[in-house]
Amino acid sequence: MARISDYPSDITPEGSDILLGNGANGGITKVFSLENLSEWMSNTGKVTIVGQNNFAFQSEGLRQDGTFSFESVGGANTPFSDVSTLVFSTRAFNGVIASTFMTTLVGKQIVIARLDNPNNYGIYTLDQFSPRGGEPGFYDAQFTLETSNGEITANKYYGFAGYTSNTGGGGGGDDKNFVYTQSVASATWSITHNLDKYPSVSVTDSGLNTVYGDIEYIDTNSLTITFKSAFGGKAFLN
Prior knowledge:
This protein is mainly beta and 238 residues long. The chain is 6% helix and 45% strand. It contains 2 helices and 16 strands. It has helices spanning 34-43, 99-103; strands at residues 18-22, 29-33, 52-57, 67-69, 78-79, 85-89, 109-114, 121-131, 138-149, 151-152, 157-162, 178-192, 201-205, 210-211, 214-219, 222-237. A 7-stranded mixed β-barrel has the order 3-4-6-9-8-7-11. Strands 12, 13, 14, 15 and 16 form a 5-stranded antiparallel beta sheet that branches.
């Protein structure tokens, strides 16, 4: 057999390239693709991102460590826009206790996104994260939807992390945005956003239907929107 140094070097590896190694059980020689190895490292959290915990979505059977699920399990292909409660394992998929950190995010925005397709995501305010009665090792999470796209798919892995949108004033850096919630029905919404600019504005009612109104910019940090009738919902300022 040729020496390792005799083989040509590949300076442009691809996901389909194969690595040779030994399995943990019995030392059986196996081959691994770079793509599968990368997916395993991401899903199990072996590549660590500070503040992110990864979970497998479970849609059948008894709840397992390292998973999140709906209260009655099931729920595959549920749109992120319909999610308001979930049950999380105390431990993330890599076996590390995640609940302690996740509890610190109550009252803040968080994101849940599919690891192999981040265009499937939900951004929420985490309203509650507390131990689940009768099921040790699991936590009940309650959310208020901010924005979302796509759906939750069975047998996929998802990252859970704090989400920061730039809402303060000041110049420079990334473009700033602001999400305003009108909780009480009103025909006039007065919004202080502190973005230090005249932002574009889109509005949805509580059913996420787009609504149009007359926008009056008071200054670069505040505006009002007037509608034909009173309702509650959200305004998205960019």
